[in-house]
Amino acid sequence: MKNDCIFCAIAAGEIPSFKVYEDDLVLAYLDINPFSKGHTLVIPKAHSTGLLETDDATLAAVIARVKKVAAHITAKLGCDGFNILQNNGEAAGQTVRHVHFHIIPRWAGDPLVFENHKGDMDALKALAEEIRL
Ligand code: AMP
Ligand code: ZN
């Protein structure tokens, strides 16, 4: 665990999150400023900064969980598609330096924008309970 890392603190349960899925290796929780309904972040519990700093075995485990959670969210929310987004470095828009994969549900006809919307905490809490694995 890295002391000044907010996602390590979430993984350790020191900061609350709207949890969607958890196992020994990974945690998935709703993004508090979602691009779309059900926008979920999947992180390895062990700290690493980005894709290039993460060992292959961890990445393989994380992407398998990304697939599992994306399939579950698709079934639960009935979205028509989803984006997987993974930012590396400030220039790429990475604001939290703990490697994470975004799952961004998409619905046909909605504008395909990549921008955060301030989340309603009560709605996020209810949604996490609805879609939790
Ligand atoms: P990135 O731009 O790829 O680094 O994405 C970081 C994401 O983390 C952003 O979409 C933020 O809205 C989200 N985020 C930051 N703090 C939290 C938090 N405490 N709980 C959930 N999501 C967060
Ligand atoms: Zn971390």
Which features characterize this protein?
133 residues; alpha+beta; five-stranded antiparallel beta sheet; 5 strands; binds adenosine monophosphate; binds zinc ion
Any overview of this molecule?
It contains three helices and five strands, in the order αβββαββα. The protein has a five-stranded antiparallel sheet. The longest helix has 22 residues. The radius of gyration is 14 Å and the shape is globular. The protein binds adenosine monophosphate (AMP) and zinc ion.
Q: Strand order, biggest sheet?
A: 1-2-3-5-4
Bound molecules: adenosine monophosphate, zinc ion
H/E element sequence: HEEEHEEH
Q: Decide which structural class fits the backbone.
A: alpha+beta
Treating each run of at least 4 consecutive H or I residues as one helix, how many helices? 3
